[in-house]
Amino acid sequence: MTTSEGAVRLPAPPGEAELWAAAQRGDRAAFTALYHQHAAAVWSQAYRLTVTLPAAEDVLAATFLTAWRRRGDVRLVDGTALPWLLTVASNEARTDWRRTTRHKRLKLRVGPPPDVSDHADTVVASLDDRRRLHQVIAAIAELPTGQREAVALCLVAEVSHADAARALGISEVTLRSRIHRARTRLRTLLPEEVR
Amino acid sequence: MNELDLPPAPPLPAEVRERALQTVLAGLDAPPRQRRPFLLAAAAAAVVVTLLVTTTFALSGFGPGERPPPRVASIPHGIVGWPLSDGSDKSFVDRCGNAVEHSDQSQFYGPPDEWKVTSAVGTGALETDVIIDDFFACLLTPGATIFSENIASASAGTPIPGNVSVTRMAPGKLVFLNPDDRRLIVGPRSNPDKASEIKDANVAFYDINDDEAPEMIQVQVIDRRTGETLYDGPLPEPEDATRYVDRELPKRTGSPDDAVLDACIAKAPTHVFSDPGSWVPFGRHEIEGAPPLLIARVGDVGVGFCELDPPATDLPDYYRAFDGFPLPPLDDPTRAKMVRWAHPTGPDPFAIIRIPPKVVRAEMLATPENGEPRTVECSVLDDLAVCSMDRPPESDNVYRYTYTTYESMDPQSPGLSVE
User: Fold this and answer.
1) Is residue A6 part of a domain?
2) Could you report the predicted ipTM of this complex, rounded to two decimals?
3) Distance between CA B65 and CA B359 in Å, rounded?
4) Are the Cβ atoms of B202 and A133 closer than 8 angstroms?
């Protein structure tokens, strides 16, 4: 479903609230059901913010592990926790990104990186594209937390402003303000990428 | 494709879905990952430029000499509210939030408890320019809170081509809203060298200098990416911002000094006093040998003065303009407190002191390092004392000043030290 603004209005799967309630009581079967319900969407977000299949897989698992530990804090928007999960995934992706970046810097000190291709090469066709994507993700990763979460939900996952605001527990006006400031910042860093 | 042109994700492979699930299930009983605690580094940088005038207060019991009769003013000035703000971000947000919530536009600003102050700059005597979340502007004056529309508002201010708009916060103070981060250059048309670019802000105050009539201001809006000039022309007539009167201040009573005070305030740059009418003539300080002063008040929160016949000096014109400043409360209700030592190195130094309610007389003793001490009588204007030197200080001498207050006109009554 798409709103007039082009943002995805998240459906409200029946019974999700009950599944979270059961998970909060320790029901692993309920949590597994929730995993299957949201794994594809979380994967998509994880991939967009890491651009490699192995990293996206790590982020997918880390997101649901964090969700299990914080299942008492889950925030449902229109009956679904997906915006909240996407926020968790975005934060996990940033952690993964920064860890990988540190690792890459270390490798550069000891010698050129090995020329190893992975599945991402089939998606990211050229080195320029890869460099561009990395610049975008690096710029997002450096945004202040509030702006980064707003960008991850609204500009990357294309969650509607209303749902994103509720998932983040802020007003829609505040959300729009954060997105505006993030756009301004990203436009400075990536003048060719941000419209 | 999303706004950032990040690539679409490939479908989640079934084997990845299953492998990740097993990782999750295997980790459900594991303790949480150890995270390094955040090290919060709070850096507070405060640049304080202070003109220090060292004045010594000491106990003194000298009796009065020949002196003119003191004047007592009785203009009502009691209002609540010192301090207007404690200078904290929270106090600014509280006051702006109160104003916005009393308007019919509060739904467009979000809840104030989510606001953060982007910048707060004290200007003039008792005013603060506040920008909230780089989203809208708030001007705090002693009696009113004036707020602009915000950058998400479709009808914000007077539009300028390039999606910029301008709002008048006060006669000498504008706010530009620039949501698209255009290059925005503003300045006097007659002197392009004085034009300046408003940078790194979507919301910015602009003070109109005294040599800049609003109709003489030139505005340039340039697209940063293409370099295209979107507007280069005069400042359009700005719409007035929303004004919320959040406290009643004493009003002028039609005194002949009103016009004198207005003329004096008009000598100050336009943006310094956003609400000149809030200043009320309070009394005159007139002693032989020193320029007469007109003292004005903003209720209980501000005091200022105007020299009515200033000595000829080579000091700039604003030396003759009205000067106002906050009026602090007494720390001890029985002891006087220095408010302002004015023109300490000029030809006509004087002090304004806040005095306890029962004080009817005050004196200032100036003791030079080399020479004889001199005593001057102070004017008592209700809860203020104004003490002028009756001759300019010698530039090569060092002075020690002592203030003494009395609760009786009896020349034999003991004085009370001021420390």
Assistant:
1) no
2) 0.75
3) 18
4) no
